Amino acid sequence: MLLIASIQDFRKREVPDSISYILIVGTLLLSFTYSIAYNTISNLIYIPLSILLLFGFSYFMYLLGQWGGGDVKLMLGLSFAFTSLNIFSDKSFIALFINILLFGGIYGLIGTIIFGIIKINKLRKYLKKYDAPFFIASAAIIILSVILVPFPINVFIAVGMFMIFSIRFVFLVANNLMYIQEKVSKLTQGDWLAESPKDENGKKIIPERNTGLTNTDIQKLKEKGIKEVIIKIGLPFVPGIFFAVLITVLLGNPFLQLFSVL
User: What is the pLDDT of residues 123-155, one digit of tens each?
Assistant: First the structure.
């Protein structure tokens, strides 16, 4: 389900509700089936905590305008799937949550950088005079530190410089390239409006919301005869969630494993 959702998120910037509902119902049934098969409720005890952490966090991100509604529904399904018998296991919902923050963040960072490189011709006109020298100097410091500085100091220098470079690059991409002109006829619920069109009296037809457009908003734009609007686009994050789930299932949680060793 997450693989299908990831493909849909890339292609259409949305996840069909049917995929989310199949994941939610399927994982919930599997949890109860396990409980009945082994005559135990121990696997159900932590479901409230799992929902609170995974679903609660995703809903908070939704309210901030960082995640879409489809992401939230998928996380509800995952909160039923990762109800480990041991919450300190490196395959529990806590382990998954840490992996989503860590590997989802890495996915988002690298994905945004790749997006900026692909759109570099458009990005050039937004560069300041100091940006090009800064990027070249950052790359030179990373390469020279890896070659000349002994391990593990070189790793800290290279990662630190990469993060400083990334912050500036991601800022440029997010503030200048993550907008598109979209036909009102193609808008879907949850699309983020960057700038609301105004009516004949100069008043905004609909407010800009972190939670995105509603079907009522879209209908109102159509009634006012608006043909196109500017909407904000974000990097599809469902693939990041999918990546974090794969890491958790196959490898567990590297952070918790390292913590256990220490």
Answer: 888 888 888 888 888 889 888 888 888 887 888
Query: What residue numbers bound the domain in which 218 lies?
Result: 179-232
Instruction: Determine if the pTM surpasses 0.90.
Output: no
Q: CB under 8 Å to 68, separation ≥6 — which residues?
A: 14, 15, 62, 190, 212, 237
Residues 207 and 248 in one domain: no
Considering the domain architecture, whether residues 80 and 149 belong to the same structural domain is answered as: no
What are the distances in angstroms from CA 21 to CA 58, 75, 147, 153? Answer: 16, 11, 51, 48
Give the closest residue to 239 by CA, choosing from 71, 97, 94: 71
Nearest to 192 by CA among 236, 231, 234: 231
Among 158, 176, 194, give the residue marking a domain's end: 176
